[in-house]
Amino acid sequence: xxxxxxxxxxxxxxxxxxxxxxxxxxxxxxxxxxxxxxxxxxxxxxxxxxxxxxxxxxxxxxxxxxxxxxxxxxxxxxxxxxxxxxxxxxxxxxxxxxxxxxxxxxxxxxxxxxxxxxxxxxxxxxxxxxxxxxxxxxxxxxxxxxxxxxxxxxxxxxxxxxxxxxxxxxxxxxxxxxxxx
Length: 181
What we know:
5-stranded mixed sheet; 2 domains; alpha+beta; CATH 3.30.1320.10; 5 strands
């Protein structure tokens, strides 16, 4: 005869509690048992585990094998592992609300980052304009009076004299003679 330490389900529909029992391997799940060694209620938060560890140790010495679920409960009762907590499934409305909040936060964060980037770009543009103005002022020396006269004559003289009609040349000569008087 093989002896197991296992859970026997009791309670109403959708509201179970379990007895931790020592029973023959061949007996039914909720059938006859040899000894009651504890109780387990998963509906409370945290789950209620009430196991007589002295009795469990006696049966383990005698050769009883705990099932996987019973072994986890025994370990939790000894303090090796924390008691299993009830996992609550959030409603669809709660999930949708949380998703909306996350999306809202993401949009706000993206907008804030965009504002920061725009402000930084504006500051960089202003700084570049200021440095360009400084560079332009430093690189262009003030023209001397001789250079100003040379620039005026260069602008007045066409690049190719063959294209200039004779009338304009005569007008220039007349203007120069008047200046000479």
